[in-house]
Write a structure and sequence with these properties.
Distance between the termini: 32 Å
CATH architecture of the largest domain: 3-Layer(aba) Sandwich
Bound molecules: 1,3-dihydroxyacetonephosphate, iron/sulfur cluster
Helix content: 25-40%
Number of helices: 13
CATH superfamily of the largest domain: NadA-like
Shape: globular
Strand content: 15-25%
CATH class of the largest domain: Alpha Beta
Length: 276
């Protein structure tokens, strides 16, 4: 029996559903029931009938699924898979920030710990941030944590000014405007998609800033046959698998999130820890 067959058999035995983020290893995405971005996976976790959810991604994603589904068992194959950005602010720091800005609304990116979420008025993902942030009035004072880039991106789209926590994603910090220009020179006419976690100059040099789910939808729906992708390279597996007639080029092969790669078929088959 292959590792994949073994995992599918175990999932069937335990009536478990396997969810995998778009950045996980290709073989992990292939063995999962569903792949998606943070918002799609949170929604899936809330709607699947299975009592057991195995979450392949980073810790805050499994933790979010557990918060949203108190009656279900959420397991993570690799509990040490963290998100450095999520660790760039603590609950104590959110409390101190709110004390310095009385009356302001605190909004957190889903890439945050449960402790930070508990201190905030609203939680958004890259897939719903623009729509959710529109619900705040233009005069509302907003504290956005921890990602300065997603917060800055939404503030720019809505023509608002937010107080931004200086957090960032080390993986998306690797992409540069020069890298985008070089990719455009190699693939003239190909649209450039980047994640809103990229710095401002990089977003300005791209054609669209989209969540990973938004990138998958763009690839499906847009007529372009060649697309340049500025995000973690794990997404290329899904893009290529779902769009066999199209070509996808990473802006940089170095854009790897080491934590997203910690989940392997071996630890998925052998070692799943409950989220408590
Ligand atoms: P998405 O929700 O767009 O998949 O982003 C998650 C993430 O961690 C990006 O670095
Ligand atoms: Fe965190 Fe960046 Fe990895 Fe996403 S890609 S999980 S933001 S470190």
């Amino acid at each position: 029996m292959t590792r994949q067959e073994e995992i599918r058999e175990l999932a069937a035995e335990r009536k478990a559903v396997i969810l995998a983020h778009n950045y996980t290893r290709g073989e992990v995405q292939d063995v999962a029931d569903y792949t998606g971005d943070s918002l799609e996976l949170a929604r899936k976790a809330a709607t699947v009938e299975a009592e057991v959810i195995v979450f392949c991604g980073v810790y805050f994603m499994a933790e979010t699924a557990a918060i949203l589904n108190p009656g279900k068992t959420v397991l993570i194959p690799e509990p040490s898979a963290g998100c450095p950005m999520a660790d760039m602010i603590t609950g104590e720091q959110v409390r101190a920030l709110k004390a310095r800005h009385p009356g302001a609304k605190a909004v957190c990116y889903v890439n945050s710990t449960a402790e930070v979420k508990a201190e905030c008025d609203m939680c958004v993902t890259s897939g719903n941030a623009e729509r959710v942030m529109r619900t705040f009035g233009p005069d509302e004072q907003i504290l956005f944590v921890p990602d300065q880039h997603l917060g800055g991106h939404i503030a720019g789209l809505l023509r608002r000014t937010y107080t931004l926590w200086p957090g960032y994603c080390p993986t998306h910090q690797m992409i540069t405007v020069k890298g985008i220009e070089a990719a455009r020179a190699l693939h003239p006419g190909a649209p450039v998609l980047v994640h809103p976690e990229c710095p401002k100059d990089v977003r300005a040099a791209a054609d669209h800033a989209l969540s990973t789910g938004g990138m998958c939808a763009f690839a499906r729906e847009n007529a372009a046959r060649e697309i340049i992708v500025g995000t973690e390279t794990g997404i290329l597996h899904r893009l290529r698998k779902e769009n066999p007639g199209k070509a996808f080029y990473p802006v940089s092969e170095r854009m790897v999130c080491p934590n997203m790669k910690k989940t392997t078929l071996d630890n998925l088959a052998e070692y799943c820890m409950p989220i408590v």
